[in-house]
């Protein structure tokens, strides 16, 4: 299977490199400057699962000559429109597009550009960041990809898994990270959305790591209220967070010794653009549509939108 990774950043670079290590046929779609950097310095990963430096195959949009079997789309929300333009030459009639962006808004954009059939559902569970040397640093040991047909992954006639999702599963399995072929990928995407929205809301609105928030009076109560707001929206939309997962998030959100910060918070601290609308804003809109009161979520959206606007000046 020919795999094109769109985005050689903290997420795409990490999983793409692990697939290369496992012997898969992987090419990275990058800008010319990034291609030069990767050929000069290599794609470098610092990880609890083992460090790696490799010289990956790269291609720019103008150099794509033939379609790929699988496109692993791992950009953030802001460059999505440009990524769609850049990857168009790589999309053929049988190409699978496997996006692992946050939230749900990107699905509509991809379906509009490439059709309903091409677009799979996807979830990525990893905590990585780029350091000042452009190395990919894995912050926690967690590393998992979840994927599935948005229709449920089965053919209408036989009730069996589609042939292409089996091929995808075979290509991604046994590559030194966890994988899951989901028969309810939309639920899995909502589950992740509630998790990252809750933890992003808590850390960005309250301004610190989870442990520091829980060590001050009313910190734990406020963190739990934030989680309840996000979970209530998922439930109202028909995707209630499973109780065991909800309890696990509650434990993470109330640990007094935790140094955890969300990717939203880390971007905020770096003065970088944040995915305010795709992670929190869209969720808030769903809450408004169901007439839910979510004051903490609303306050955090306002804060991040003010911050985002300040970057334009």
From TrEMBL:
Query: What exactly does this protein do?
Result: Catalyzes the NADPH-dependent reduction of ketopantoate into pantoic acid.
Q: Which family does it belong to?
A: Belongs to the ketopantoate reductase family.
Enzyme's top EC category: oxidoreductase
What is the protein name for this chain? 2-dehydropantoate 2-reductase
Q: Kindly list the GO molecular function terms attached to this UniProt entry.
A: 2-dehydropantoate 2-reductase activity
Under the heading Pfam families, the entry gives: ApbA, ApbA_C
Gene Ontology BP term (one): pantothenate biosynthetic process
Indicate the segments forming the Ketopantoate reductase C-terminal domain, all copies.
184-307
Organism listed in the record: Tunturiibacter empetritectus
Pathway named in the protein's UniProt entry = Cofactor biosynthesis; (R)-pantothenate biosynthesis; (R)-pantoate from 3-methyl-2-oxobutanoate: step 2/2
Alphabetical keyword list: NADP, Oxidoreductase, Pantothenate biosynthesis
């Amino acid at each position: 299977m020919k795999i094109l990774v769109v985005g050689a950043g903290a997420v795409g670079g990490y999983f793409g490199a692990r697939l290369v290590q496992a012997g898969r046929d992987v090419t990275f779609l990058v800008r010319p400057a990034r291609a030069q950097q990767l050929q000069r310095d290599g794609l470098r990963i610092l990880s609890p699962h083992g460090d790696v430096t490799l010289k990956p195959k790269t291609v720019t949009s103008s150099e794509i000559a033939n379609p790929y079997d699988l496109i692993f789309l791992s950009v953030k929300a802001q460059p999505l429109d440009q990524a769609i333009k850049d990857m168009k030459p790589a999309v053929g009639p049988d190409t699978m597009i496997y996006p692992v962006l946050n939230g749900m808004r990107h699905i509509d954009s991809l379906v509009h550009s490439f059709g309903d059939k091409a677009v799979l559902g996807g979830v990525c569970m990893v905590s990585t960041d780029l350091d000042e040397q452009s190395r990919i640093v894995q912050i926690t040991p967690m590393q998992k990809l979840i994927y599935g047909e948005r229709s449920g992954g089965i053919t209408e006639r036989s009730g069996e898994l589609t042939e292409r999702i089996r091929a995808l599963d075979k290509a991604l399995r046994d590559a030194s990270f966890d994988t899951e072929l989901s028969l309810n990928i939309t639920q899995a995407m909502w589950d992740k959305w509630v998790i990252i929205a809750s933890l992003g809301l808590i850390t960005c609105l309250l301004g610190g790591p989870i442990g520091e928030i829980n060590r001050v009076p009313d910190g734990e109560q406020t963190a739990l209220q934030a989680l309840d707001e996000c979970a209530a929206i998922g439930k109202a939309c028909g995707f209630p967070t499973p109780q065991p997962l909800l309890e696990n998030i509650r434990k993470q959100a109330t640990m007094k010794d935790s140094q955890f910060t969300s990717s939203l918070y880390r971007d905020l601290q770096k003065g970088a653009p944040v995915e305010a609308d795709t992670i929190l804003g869209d969720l808030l809109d769903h809450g408004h549509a169901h007439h839910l009161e979510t004051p903490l979520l609303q306050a955090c959206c306002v804060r991040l939108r003010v911050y985002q606007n300040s970057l334009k000046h």
